[in-house]
Predict the 3D structure of the following.
Amino acid sequence: MENTTGAVRELDLDETWELLGARDFGRLAYAVGTHPEIVPINYCAADRAIYFRTASGGKLFGVTINQNVAFEIDEIRGEVARSVIVRGTARRLEASEEIEKAETLPLRPWMPTDKFNYVRIDVDEVTGRQFHMEPDTAD
């Protein structure tokens, strides 16, 4: 169905990165074998990449065995919703200069757990859409 009301608009590249830069929480999607996983993460967008910290465990294992990932954020303000989806390649940072740079980013975990691993998502594709939500008048 064609959108003739202007209720949906594609975000341009700068708008998608502006929204990514203004947020710090999203969802990481990856697959372990044939099992898809979606997990919440705190992140930071910098240098047109996505960074996050993680402990050893499921997330790190998942992005290590299958580096192809997706990442998504949403924002709803009043009657306007925006969504950004990133597709890319995740890699654990191992070079000391990359880790030192990542340590300067504002990556704040929600839980006071040790998260010594830094992961960078090198972005292959980023898309975003904005939705104008009409009030429900069907009564």
